[in-house]
Amino acid sequence: MSVLDNQKYDRIIIGGGISGLSASIKLAEAGKKTLLLESQNELGGKIRTLSLMGALTEEGPDELIIGYKKFDELLMHANIFDELIYPETSKFYIFARNKLRIFPESLISGIPSFNLNNIYNFVTSGLLSSKGYARTILEPLFRIKNFKDDLSVKELFEEKFGLEFTKNVIDPLFGGIMGADISIISAKSYIPYIFQVAKAGKSLSFYFSKKRGNRHFNISSTLNGMYGVIVKLKQYAEKNGVKIITGKTVKSLEYVNNKWNISTDIDSIKCSKLILAVPSYIAAGFVYDFDKKLSSLLSSIKYTDISVVNLVYKNYSVKLHDMISGFLMPSNSGFKLRGCTLMSRKWAYAKIKDHELIRCFLNRNSSKSEDFYVQSAAEELTQLGITTGYPEYYAVKIWDAALPIYTIGYSELIKKINEIIPPNIYLAGAPYNGVGVASSGISGIEAAEKSLSESTD
Ligand SMILES: Cc1cc2nc3c(=O)[nH]c(=O)nc-3n(C[C@H](O)[C@H](O)[C@H](O)COP(=O)(O)OP(=O)(O)OC[C@H]3O[C@@H](n4cnc5c(N)ncnc54)[C@H](O)[C@@H]3O)c2cc1C
Q: CATH homologous superfamily of domain 110-213?
């Protein structure tokens, strides 16, 4: 007998990443009988903690951002707050003017702040030439000409702070984190708070000098790595009655007699309300047969591919003496590396006796093998003066479609999707509400809330 038979659910969620899991909890807390279907054998989606030589490391995210009220509440309900740990260092480098340089704290959100200490900290960082610093500091005099409905992160920063600041600071900071080209990332959707201030014709430097103190976000994880968050959320979801089935791939959806019929290879189940917490290109496949336009809009959300290489070195092979958490690289550096986390310096769970654990991100090229990424990462770490020799051990994870990219015009695209989405289907996850773990979780919570508010059951 199929595992899906003879059951009635108020809501079915497809996709057991952080967004689907968060949605399931919200629904169960509201008393709804909820089923969560996940194709992999484990929940978590992009959240994947790996055991390596007795320590832990990450194949996906390593940072859980605390400070988003809706998601913090969920973590509190699941008793995760008590288990949170924080990085042992938050300093990092960026590669600018041919070497790795400490990223000044005064630039943390990417905007130079105008108080004397911060200006000193910035202009002595070595990130820019004197001409570059002068142009950056003159930002209040520059307004964006012909402000359009949207523009790229590159255009916004070039017009406000000049070419050199954009190339040396913004490209590695935003492009390096996303593994994407800042000339296609939408400023309106990716950095809405900065976009709105620039649109109002205000100085970003002055505005964020004043506002900086108001933001309270912290980076965290658990002693069991990021998967520790999934374990606790799963326990809490099940305690509240969520039925979780893993290893179950949904193949198609059909709307029959006011119900959604959800089919896998071997069985099917009906439900009146669905949350699709899968990547947008998977959701596009689900709706293709009955709504080609929606399918095409969902397919047009772009993704970036990333290779993650975890490398374990003997202590003596690591030449870096600063206590830093990692570094970011610009797109035009000539290196394949886009970023690197020094896991064993940053996280308590990633320490290996007499060794250092380094995690590298490289842009993915589909024709290349795992060995290519290991070799490129190892060679480039040596070139950058971080290591010598070859790692003792490594693990590679290649993510096709790792992160959605909010390209220019993204907010219009989402508006159109929301206008034509069929009744009783709700979208959740990184493609829709912010790419991070917390934002994806919130997107799940909000999809659940929407389904509850429109509910007649
Ligand atoms: C390398 C990397 C590093 C990152 N670093 C950070 C970081 O440090 N901090 C941060 O905040 N964010 C980070 N992110 C982003 C963040 O991890 C993700 O955006 C977020 O976890 C996405 O969650 P989600 O639920 O939207 O999607 P996913 O995690 O992709 O979950 C979707 C789920 O749907 C399932 N599924 C797909 N198809 C089907 C089907 N047909 N039937 C059933 N189930 C299906 C999948 O198996 C998957 O489990 C990183 C991402 C990557 C890849």
A: protoporphyrinogen ix oxidase, domain 3 (1.10.3110.10)
Q: What is the DSSP string of 54-81?
A: TEEEESS---EEE--HHHHHHHHHTT-G
Q: Is the CB of 435 under 6 A from ligand 1?
A: yes
Distance 196 CA to ligand 1 centre (A): 28
Q: Mutate which of 3, 282, 437 to test ligand 1's pocket (most atoms within 8 Å of Cβ)?
A: 437
Q: Give me ligand 1 centre to Cα 37, in Å.
A: 15
Our answer on whether the CB atom of 47 is closer than 6 Å to any ligand 1 atom is yes
d(Cα 276, Cα 288) in Å, to the nearest integer?
A: 14
Digit-by-digit pLDDT tens for the chain (457 residues) are 466 756 799 999 999 999 999 999 999 999 999 999 999 999 999 999 999 999 999 999 999 999 999 999 999 999 999 999 999 999 999 999 999 999 998 786 788 887 777 888 899 999 999 999 999 999 999 999 888 899 999 999 999 999 999 999 999 999 888 888 999 999 999 999 999 999 999 999 988 887 655 567 899 999 999 999 999 999 999 999 999 999 999 999 999 988 999 999 889 999 999 999 999 999 999 999 999 999 999 999 999 999 999 999 999 999 998 999 999 999 989 999 999 999 999 999 999 999 999 999 998 877 889 999 999 999 999 999 999 989 999 999 999 999 999 999 999 999 999 999 998 999 999 999 889 999 999 999 999 999 999 866 6
Give the domain ranges of the chain. 11-47+68-81+223-301+406-453, 110-213
Which of 46, 177, 437 most suits a substitution to test ligand 1, by most atoms within 8 Å of the C-beta? 46
pTM over 0.85: yes
- CA-proximal residue: ligand 1, atom 49 (nearest): 45
Atom of ligand 1 nearest to the CA of 429: 26
- For ligand 1, the distance from its centroid to the CA atom of residue 45, given in whole angstroms, is 4
Residue having the nearest C-alpha atom to atom 4 of ligand 1: 61
Pairing of strands 337-342, 326-328: antiparallel
Whether 356 lines ligand 1, by a CB cut-off of 6 Å, is no
Nearest to 261 by CA among 428, 12, 457, 456: 12
Number of C-beta neighbours around residue 6 at 10 A: 8
Q: How far apart are CA 81 and CA 45, in angstroms?
A: 21
Q: Among 37, 44, 24, 53, which residue's Cα sits nearest to residue 310?
A: 53
Q: How far is CA 210 from the centre of its chain?
A: 27
Strands 92-96, 326-328: parallel, antiparallel or unpaired by DSSP? parallel
| CATH fold of 11-47+68-81+223-301+406-453 | FAD/NAD(P)-binding domain (3.50.50)
54 alpha carbon – ligand 1 mean position (Å): 25
Cβ–ligand 1 distance for 405 under 6 Å, the answer: no
